[in-house]
Amino acid sequence: MNGRRVVVTGLGALTPIGNNLEEYWKGLSNGVSGAAPITRFDAEKFRTKFACEVKNYDPLNHFDRKDARKMDPFTQYALIVSEEAIKHSGLDLEKVDKDRVGVIWGAGIGGLKTFQDEVTDFSRGDGTPRFNPFFIPKMIADIAAGYISITYGFRGPNFVTVSACASATNALIDSLNYIKLGHADVIVSGGSEATVCEAGVGGFNALKALSERNDDPSTASRPFDKDRDGFVLGEGGACIILEELEHAKARGAKIYAEFIGGGMSSDAYHITAPHPEGLGAKNVMINALKDAGIKTTDVDYINVHGTSTPLGDKGETLAIREVFGAHAYNINISSTKSMTGHLLGAAGAIEAVASIMAIQHQLVPPTINHFTDDEELDSKLNFTFNKAQARKIDIALSNTFGFGGHNTSIIFRKYEG
């Protein structure tokens, strides 16, 4: 590539533990759990009756009623976090060359609630095909990027990546590369997901992927704990404004971190289970380190995929130990999914924001809900259990892995000017 450097100049977040960037970071640093009984629908007959929902959310606080009805919640979330990130970046929409601003978004599923509701209504009818004219544009995953582009008039590269839980991280990697290659100067990137509905909870229950700790939802997401029993479904989104360094400097932008590399790999193993020896996780971190041009000993913090599933946590731990060797014991590791739950296609976006904020504040957010060590994991690794830890963080790595064997890893560095 041509050596163009890429930096972060704006952030936005809407999560189960905070409805904006400031609230999200406060929740992370204080170890707040976003898990609680489901309010979106009556979950009494479901095996899992709780989730990490966005709290106190009313679309009419952000959109007029007519516009809100045209958008699935995942698109609403995308517009909310992109607005916050653009404002946070200080980007002058009157001066920026909009032909050079792109939108690359991530969503693993898209409008699941819309699809569920439309098909349910049809099945209850007399067979006459009566569908909402916005059914298709509400449902398709790419519509989130389309709405952001239309709202702001951004005419650069515009698409959505879909790779299950790796979707948003794939979007960020594509954004990094498009800017490096000179196809854009600024890209609005991130991800959003809204699957806390009957189809989402029921589908993941059928896979036996979700925790069923209904007696104590707030401690149900417990990555690396011996008694972990599955992930907790989350919702929301996050946005990152990525910008070519000289473009950012020319407009006097505040720079929050430098985005120095990304890696991708495939397990080539199973549609839902991770490789038992963490092969894909190992390869993706090696690829990211090579792309960033750094050594294993340069990494200070890893925001792990850490979903709280028995196989996933074990495989990722094995991969970290193999890739980083003795240095693995000098790295802080944490799973912020212990607080936010698993946002599926948006997970990589909110966790990238967590990694960037960790660099900004020199503070590692914790892995909460740890009660019992798992003898199959390496207890000498620093999982940052239960309490945030202050430390020097120059480089942070973030992992996200998805059904289908999709693996992504991205690396941010403290910007020194």
Automatic annotation (TrEMBL):
UniProt cross-references to SMART domains, sorted A to Z: PKS_KS (SM00825)
Ketosynthase family 3 (KS3) domain residues: 3-414
Xref: Pfam families: ketoacyl-synt (PF00109), Ketoacyl-synt_C (PF02801)
Keyword Transferase: yes
Enzyme Commission number, as recorded: 2.3.1.179
One Gene Ontology MF term: 3-oxoacyl-[acyl-carrier-protein] synthase activity
EC supergroup of this enzyme: transferase
SUPFAM superfamilies registered for this protein in UniProt: Thiolase-like
Annotated metabolic or biological route of this protein: Lipid metabolism; fatty acid biosynthesis
Cross-referenced CDD domains: KAS_I_II (cd00834)
InterPro entries (UniProt xref): 3-oxoacyl-ACP_synth-2 (IPR017568), Beta-ketoacyl_synthase (IPR000794), Ketoacyl_synth_AS (IPR018201), Ketoacyl_synth_C (IPR014031), Ketoacyl_synth_N (IPR014030), PKS_Beta-ketoAc_synthase_dom (IPR020841), Thiolase-like (IPR016039)
Keyword Lipid metabolism: yes
Alphabetically ordered keywords of this record: Acyltransferase, Fatty acid biosynthesis, Fatty acid metabolism, Lipid biosynthesis, Lipid metabolism, Transferase
Catalytic activity, as annotated: (9Z)-hexadecenoyl-[ACP] + malonyl-[ACP] + H(+) = 3-oxo-(11Z)-octadecenoyl-[ACP] + holo-[ACP] + CO2; a fatty acyl-[ACP] + malonyl-[ACP] + H(+) = a 3-oxoacyl-[ACP] + holo-[ACP] + CO2
Annotated function: Involved in the type II fatty acid elongation cycle. Catalyzes the elongation of a wide range of acyl-ACP by the addition of two carbons from malonyl-ACP to an acyl acceptor. Can efficiently catalyze the conversion of palmitoleoyl-ACP (cis-hexadec-9-enoyl-ACP) to cis-vaccenoyl-ACP (cis-octadec-11-enoyl-ACP), an essential step in the thermal regulation of fatty acid composition.
Family to which this protein belongs: Belongs to the thiolase-like superfamily. Beta-ketoacyl-ACP synthases family.
Protein name as it appears in the record: 3-oxoacyl-[acyl-carrier-protein] synthase 2
